[in-house]
Amino acid sequence: MTTEIDLQNSSPREFRGRIYDALDEIEPDTELLVVSDRDIDAHLIRYQIERGDALDWDHEDPDAEPREVRVFKRGPLGDGELGTFDVRDLIPQRRHEVLLDAFDRLGAGEGFVLVNDHDPKPLYYELRSMHGDVIEWEYASREPGEWRVEIVKTDASTADDEGVITRYDVREIPKPDRHETIHHRYGMIPDGETMELVAPHEPRPLRREFREQYGDAFDWEVVEKEPGRCRVQITKAERSDSSSDGEERTSATAGDDGGSAEASDETPERTAELDVRDLPPAQRHEQIFEAYADLDDGEGFVLVNDHDPKPLYHQFDAEAGPEFYWEYRKRDPGEFRVLIGKAEAHGGDPTASADPNPPF
After folding, report:
1. Contact of 3 with 25, CB cutoff 8 Å
2. CA angle (93 as vertex; 217, 186 as ends), nearest 5
C-alpha cells in the first residue's frame, strides 16, 4: 500500500514537518509517494539521522515538475550505520546542488553514505574547498556502476560561500584533474551564477580555455591577489533567446588556434540522433560507444546530453582511431548537442588529423 502526500505550496516552515509526520505514520516496509515543488533529498537524509530509520527513495522523473519521489521505509538503522543517499537517478546538474545542500545541513559527527555510478572524487574537492578540512571521506565499495562513499562532517563548517554557488581550491586538486574538474562543474551551474577558484596564481591558461570554449559568455574577475594565493570569480552569463537558439560549432578537426572549424565536405553525414538524457548515467557511455561502433566511414550521429560530455571526448580520443570526429552543435544548460562520427577515408588515409586539436 502506498500513502501519498502533496507538499506543493507548503511554506518553508511546514514543509519539513509534513515530511516527517508522513514518514512517522507509515510502517516499515511501506512506501510514501511525495509530490513536491522543490527537492526533498536533504530532508530525507536528516530524517534518517534524527529518527534512526533507513530510507530508500527514487525519483519518478528527475526532470519533471512537480517532483514525484517514492520513499520506502526499511526499518531501524543498525548501531553506527549511516543512512544512504543514492543519487544515480538524479540528472548531473541536480546532484551537486542537492549534495551540497545535504552536507550543509549536517552537524558535527553526522554523515551519510553516498551511492553514485562513478567515482565522486570531484565532490570531495568541492566540499573541502567550500567547508575546509572537516570532511571524512571513506570508500565503502567501488563496483562498476555503484560506488559507495561514507561522508561525515567531523566538525563545524568554516564555509563562506556568500555570492558564489561553488568554490574550488585548485591547490587541493591533482594537476591532471584540475581543468577537467573545473570545466565539468562549470557546465552544471545555472546561468548568472558564480564559481570561485582559489589558486597559487591567476590561472591564465584556464582563462584562455574558457575563451576558446565559451567565447564571451562568462565574466572573469580577480577578487584577491597576493603571493601564493589568487581568488578568481567566474560568472556564467545569462543567455538571451537568440544565443540559446543558435548552434555553436566546434570541431575536433579545428585548426591550431582552437577556433571553430567550418563545415566542409569532410563533415560526417548525420544518420541518427541519440538522446541519452533519460538514461541512467551508467548506461549512457555503453549506448554511445555502441552507436559509434555501428557507424561507417563518413557517417555520424548527434549526441544529445544534459551536460557537457567533455570527458567522453577524451575517452574517444584515447580509444578511437584518427577518423574520430567531434563537433559541438549546441551548448545550452540541460541540452548539449555534439556530432560524433567517423571521417571519410580517402585512399586509406582518414581526413581527420591523427592528433586532433581538442575543442575545449
Report:
1. yes
2. 35
Q: For position 352, what pLDDT does the model report?
A: 42
The C-alpha cell of 191 is what?
546561468
Q: Is the dihedral of CA 170, 174, 180, 185 positive or negative?
A: negative
Q: Give pTM, 2 decimals.
A: 0.67
| Backbone φ and ψ of 42, nearest 5° | -65, -35
The residues with which 150 forms a beta bridge, in sequence order, are 113, 138
Contact 149, 139 (CB under 8 A): yes
Residue 73 CB neighbour total at 10 angstroms: 20
Spatial distance between the Cα atoms of 323 and 156, rounded to a whole number of angstroms? 53
91 within 8 A of 59, measured Cβ to Cβ: no
- Place 247 in a pLDDT band, splitting at 50, 70 and 90: very low
Q: Are 97 and 62 contacting, i.e. CB atoms less than 8 angstroms apart? A: no
- The three cell numbers of residue 264 are 566542409
Decide: 227 and 216 in contact? Cβ < 8 Å: no
pLDDT of residue 345: 59
Comparing 59-68, 104-113, 170-179, the range with the smallest average pLDDT is 59-68
Averaged pLDDT of the chain? 84
Helix (H, G, I), strand (E, B) or coil at 129: helix
With 70 as the cut, is the pLDDT of residue 246 above it?
Answer: no
CB 102 within 8 A of CB 149: no
CA gap 230, 224 in Å, rounded: 5
